[in-house]
Amino acid sequence: MLTSFFRYLYGYVRVRLTGYSPERFLNLCKAHHIEIWDLQNQGGCYEMNVSIRDFRRLKPLRRKTKAHLLVTERQGLPFFLHRYRNRKMFVAGILLCIAFLYTMSLFIWNIHIEGNYSRTTNVILDYLESEHIVHGMKKSQVDCKEIQSMIRIQFPDIIWVSAEIKGTRLLIRIRENMDSMPVTEEAKSEEPQDITAAREGIITSVLVRSGVSQIQVGDEVEQGQLLVQGRIDILNDSGEVVGYQYTAADADVYARTTYTYYDEFVLSHEVRHPTGKKRHGFYAKLGQKTLSLNLKPNFERFSALNTEYPLKLTENFYLPLAFGTTLYEEYEIYTESYSRAEAEAIAKENLEEFQENLIQKGVQIIENNVKIEVGTNTCIAVGTIIAVEEIGSSAPAEILESPSPPSQEEK
């Protein structure tokens, strides 16, 4: 690719070689380091490409071998400029275009972020904009190492950042710490902690690894009730408390819990019906400014769908110019009513979504006592869901003062 570019830049000719001994001529070209490419045997002659500079060196070789050379094509920038030497405005336009493209290549026209999951692209772009890292800034003003440092400081859950410039694009690759929450809990577990009930329920199983259990299987507990104590009493031979030892309570406490479910929606609802009428519009976008090339249609109600085509010369050479189309579709609104079967299907779908959210949280559903009733105007789903789940929740342990040692008289 680069070789072809320089050949076009310096110019070359395609010549037809005839004569008594063309093979000898070609051997002499090789001996004199004259570059020849795209050599083809055309029956009684040879055709080949040679640069303008080497073409001038062929004259003594041609005389020595009594070969005949005929120029069939002239290619390259020198011939192009010579051909249009009298069209000054055309040449000036080409030079201005080259200057424009070179100037545009000095700026950042696209900031691309990848690898983000919990942080949206807009959130990161807004932060970069607050730090004056924006589309249209000069590439010479971009400090990739500084950008990497700023993002890591602003977003602690991002553990790795890579920023690099490719063409007119600023590519930012990030990696988030998906295990940040468990690490936080583990760090806190070194401090004295109790385990309390996150929900009310009936205890079904208790497995204590550290701490003192305050409940048994079958006990009914309320929300916030102490389940496992992180304070351990130290007793003397008389059974008196002489001190306390604190630990981070660790246990698996499962309970039978009840969720109250209620869902109600009206049967009548609005539905959009397309009329089939459509209008197409166009717009141009230069930087952050948008120029609309059309007027909105005279539809009473319509939806608009934009499709944008950014202008780029290569994969990474983006220009601050984009073109787009807008599709306007007219629609009318009608009021319809769900049938009994449709209403029941919607209610069941909502219930399944509710249960799926519980299952994703580790809740095991054992009973579903929800009933669906379809009335004249509304559909109501009401009832309870019985489940088994872990209800333990960490809470700071209460720190007590150590009891005073008994006096000599008490002894």
Features:
22 strands, alpha+beta, four-stranded antiparallel β-sheet, 10 helices, five-stranded antiparallel β-sheet, Alpha-Beta Plaits, Ubiquitin-like (UB roll), 4 domains, 411 residues, 26% helix
Helix content: 25-40%
Give a short account of the largest sheet.
5 strands, antiparallel
How does the helix and strand content classify structurally? alpha+beta
Number of strands: 22
Query: Whole-Å distance between the termini?
Result: 100 Å
Which blocks of ≥5 consecutive residues have pLDDT under 50? 180-188
Number of structural domains: 4
The total count of helices amounts to 10
Percent range for β-strand residues = 35-45%
How would you summarize the topology of this molecule?
Blueprint: H1 2-10, E1 12-19, H2 22-31, E2 37-41, E3 46-51, H3 52-56, H4 59-65, E4 67-75, H5 77-83, H6 88-104, E5 110-114, H7 121-130, H8 144-154, E6 158-166, E7 169-176, H9 180-188, E8 193-197, E9 201-210, E10 212-213, E11 220-221, E12 226-229, E13 231-235, E14 241-246, E15 250-266, E16 268-286, E17 289-292, E18 302-312, E19 318-337, H10 340-360, E20 364-374, E21 378-390, E22 392-396
Parallel strand pairs: 5-7
Antiparallel strand pairs: 1-3, 1-4, 2-3, 6-7, 8-12, 8-22, 9-11, 9-15, 10-12, 13-14, 15-21, 16-17, 16-19, 18-19, 20-21
Helix pairs in contact: 2-4
